[in-house]
Write a structure and sequence with these properties.
It is found in: Membrane. Its main location: membrane. By secondary structure, this protein is mainly beta. The chain is built from two helices and 25 strands. The chain has a four-stranded mixed sheet, with no helix packed on it. The chain has a four-stranded mixed sheet with strand order 13-20-19-16. It has a three-stranded antiparallel sheet with strand order 5-9-8, with no helix packed on it. The longest helix has 6 residues. The termini are far apart.
């Protein structure tokens, strides 16, 4: 367009998008008020835009939502690439069941949905350059369901089991009702839980040895959590989730191991409370080597020594090398089983 002042303007509708340079030749004639004129040619080159075009990542979508979906629940989301992208529903021009967030492209229900099929045309456009736009088609099906999710007893599984419970033992049997057809059971959760427990039909079972005396059990706090998922067939599938918490309790499986023997030397002038030596046993039960020590017999002239619960032997009576050159002490170790 050429103005009376000689300005060459771009067309009101803009230029058609193109990857190539577009060239236009304008023949211009200039005339003054005396009737004198001259003419010339102007060449205009329109360069391709460097900004990315608005483009939908998916031009068509088929979405299924269950009957009874409530107002403002998320149905789906459309996404387009480009600059300053905004979204709008083109058709139907006055959408009744759905609305779109112009910034995010999230499509939500406006009412509680009943069985229906809706065809939406969505436009994405550059807010600063509205002629840069794209459209996508959505087919939304609201599907009815006559099937209810399973109802299970117990609704939460909380159990304590000894670490010696053998693999294959059943902790609990779920009783689930209210769903048509066969039910399927699966265990979801941390790998540590899924490796130790399994579902055999509706039965929650021990899958492998529950070793309380391991670092892995200590890391989990001797508690294992998971979720039992009960699934019913049909369209859409229905499911119920039953949380599970199993605490593993310790069993004293191992007998403390005593040292083969120990010899200590003490001066007969040793003061009361002086340390003679220390006895160290071992115990494989958790917590490791958690032992208490005691001496058989009571302290006295024949046994002027005592031992504390940590195995440290001390002088508690007078020592006379002329009368007793040596003493034989019997140390008792107690873990879970006295030894």
């Amino acid at each position: 367009m050429l103005t009376r002042r000689g300005l060459v303007l771009a067309p009101a509708s803009g230029f058609d998008p193109s990857k190539d340079i577009q060239t236009f030749r304008l023949e211009i004639e200039v005339m003054d008020h005396h009737g004198h004129n001259c003419s010339g040619a102007v060449r205009v080159e329109v360069l391709p835009s460097r900004r990315p075009r608005v483009t939908f990542l998916e031009l068509q979508q088929a979405v299924t939502v269950p009957e009874g979906t409530g107002p403002l629940e998320l149905v789906t989301q459309v996404r387009a690439s480009g600059d300053n992208v905004r979204y709008a529903i083109l058709a139907p021009t006055a959408p009744v069941l759905f609305t779109i967030d112009e910034m995010t492209g999230e499509i939500r229900s406006t009412h509680q949905l009943e069985v229906a099929h809706t065809h939406l045309i969505v436009r994405a456009y550059n807010a600063l350059h509205p002629t840069d736009h794209a459209t996508a088609t959505l087919n939304i099906t609201v599907q009815g369901t006559d099937q209810r999710a399973p109802s299970c007893v117990p609704a939460i599984v909380v159990s304590q089991v000894p670490e010696t419970m053998s693999p294959g033992s059943t902790l609990v049997t779920l009783r689930c009702t209210g769903a048509e057809g066969d039910l399927r059971y699966a265990l979801e959760g941390p790998p540590a839980s899924r490796s130790r427990f399994r579902m055999d039909g509706s039965q929650l079972q021990v899958n492998t040895t529950l070793d309380y005396d391991s670092d892995a059990a200590d890391t989990m706090g001797f508690q294992f959590t998971a979720t039992i998922v009960v699934m019913a067939g049909g369209q859409p599938p229905q499911s119920t989730r039953v949380p599970m918490l199993v605490t593993v309790t310790p069993v004293n499986e191992f007998t403390p191991v005593c040292p083969n023997g120990a010899t200590f030397t003490v001066m007969e002038t040793a003061a009361f409370g002086s340390t003679v030596g220390r006895v160290t046993g071992t115990d494989r039960d958790y917590p490791r080597d958690s032992l208490e020590y005691s001496l058989e017999g009571s302290p006295g002239p024949a046994q002027p020594f005592s031992i504390d619960t940590h195995g440290e032997i001390r002088v508690v009576g007078p020592l006379d090398s002329q009368r007793h050159k040596s003493y034989r002490l019997t140390v008792r170790l107690e873990g879970g089983h006295p030894q």
